[in-house]
Design goal:
With about 450 residues, this protein is α+β, with helices and mostly antiparallel strands. It is built from ten helices and 23 strands. It starts with a strand and ends with a strand.
Length: about 450
């Protein structure tokens, strides 16, 4: 892996392709050929395709921190033929055929079908002024194209990069190509192109977040117990009807019915006590899981095994070009996350794994998770610093001997504050709104 940069005296280096692969992939892909490049601007009903202006009848917009693009125009912009974009008004489904990819989406449904495989999105396609709109991140995943968001110009650049197959023991993978640009503290400009395994990105993008998974498992088990209670009620109703003592019953018949009913009653009591015991255990497990999550915070997203292997490749490339002192090396890595990874404001709690942030960008929690993981892979002791409030805030803490600036102290370690949301923040420099405020320190093991 390698990075390239352009110094102040404008020395030019040849840009290199950087392939980041999962553990089971050993071969490097060949570079892909150039495809279409389309630039969409939020609020404008035109886009630029390979330098030419194209008029649309719908404009991109931002909703809940997501940039929505008109599906048909975006698909056509990256080389999908018009006849391969098929809309069924009765079912409200759109089918897109691009190369060997068949994508199907349904208005109002979060399930995306990609070559027959269901991928769960966090939002559903919607219709605005007769056009189907979808967040650009899901559109990029569905069509296997790369995207770049410029928050200053409010533009989305969509690039159709030819997919590269890697064969290993008759296997293949497809990658998402991302190109990053940023400046370091010395003013050098860096360019970095990465191939991120598409399957890995799609897998984590479809996964429930940790707090969602805990709640889902709890509710599933709770529903099972509710069902058992309903079954128990039906069981007792059945025996009540079977054992009703009628006016014409003999003493012996009445006694037999009574005995049968009481046997059923005692069996029901035993099952009820068992259900109650299971309910108490479930509550305890849920409370322990929530407590464990509260103790861990977002640390599991930093240390997750497969993402760590990906991040380690990133960290090795950064470390190879980073300057010599610990402070300079930390700030070099921070500059990559601060500027090259776009900041995208999000509502609600939806922390991302590093592979998702590398592809999509993210908010303070997502960028802090990524930077903490990179610095950890570079050998630094890190922490996540969580500030309460509405909205709250998350930054990175990193141990740095002989460094200066603001820090947070925990278990004998000084974690120097490191901001991730924007370019230019130095190690130990805290934004004014958080200066002097306490933070929860979640040390990363």
């Amino acid at each position: 892996m390698s990075l390239t940069h352009k110094s102040r005296v404008k020395r030019r280096y040849v840009l290199l392709l950087v392939a980041i692969l999962m553990l089971f992939i050993c071969a490097l892909p060949a570079s892909a050929g150039d495809g279409n490049t389309a630039v969409f601007t939020v609020g404008k009903n035109t886009y630029v395709l390979n330098g030419n202006t194209v008029v649309m009848d719908a404009a991109p917009y931002i909703k809940d921190g997501r940039t929505f693009l008109p599906l048909r125009f975006a698909a056509k912009a990256v080389g999908t033929a018009d006849e391969n974009i098929i809309y069924d008004p009765a079912l409200k489904t759109v089918t897109i055929i691009k190369g060997d990819r068949v994508v199907q989406l349904t208005v109002g449904n979060k399930a995306l079908l990609l070559n027959g495989t269901v991928v769960m999105m966090d939002v559903a396609p919607e219709v605005v002024n007769g056009r189907i709109m979808l967040p650009i991140s899901w559109l990029a995943q569905a069509l296997s194209v790369s995207i770049e968001w410029d928050p200053v110009s409010r533009t989305v650049t969509v690039k159709d990069v030819n997919e590269t197959d890697v064969n290993e023991t008759n296997g293949a993978y497809k990658s998402i190509v991302k190109e990053y640009r940023w400046r370091d503290k010395q003013g050098n400009e860096w360019t970095w192109q990465i191939h991120i395994p598409e399957d890995m990105y799609m897998y984590y993008r479809s996964q429930l977040r940790i707090h969602e998974r805990i709640l889902k498992e709890y509710l599933e088990r709770l529903n099972e117990l509710k069902y058992q209670l309903e079954e128990l009620k039906r069981y007792m109703d059945f025996w009540y009807q079977q054992c009703r003592i009628l006016p014409g019953d003999s003493y012996y018949q009445a006694w037999r019915k009574y005995q049968t009913y009481m046997n059923a009653y005692y069996e029901a009591q035993r099952k009820l006590l068992q259900i109650q015991s299971e309910y108490v255990k479930l509550q305890q497990l849920f409370q322990r899981a929530e407590y464990r999550q509260m103790l861990d915070g977002y640390v599991p997203y930093v240390t997750e095994e497969k993402n760590y292997e990906l991040v380690r490749e990133v960290a090795e490339a950064i470390a190879e070009k980073a300057p010599g002192t610990p402070r300079e090396r930390i700030e070099f890595a921070a500059a990559f996350v601060q500027e090259a990874i776009p900041y995208i404001s999000e509502k609600g709690e939806y922390p991302k794994y590093p592979v998702e942030t590398l592809v999509e960008g993210g908010d303070c929690e997502d960028k802090s998770i990524l930077l903490a993981a990179i610095l950890r892979a570079m050998g630094y002791r890190t922490a996540l610093l969580v500030f309460s409030g509405n909205p709250g805030h998350i930054a990175v803490g990193v141990e740095c001997p002989d460094c200066w600036g603001s820090y947070y102290y925990k278990d004998g370690v000084k974690y120097f504050y490191l901001e991730t949301t924007d370019f230019g923040w130095s190690l130990g420099e805290i934004p004014l709104e958080y200066l002097g405020k306490s933070a929860l320190v979640y040390a990363v093991s």
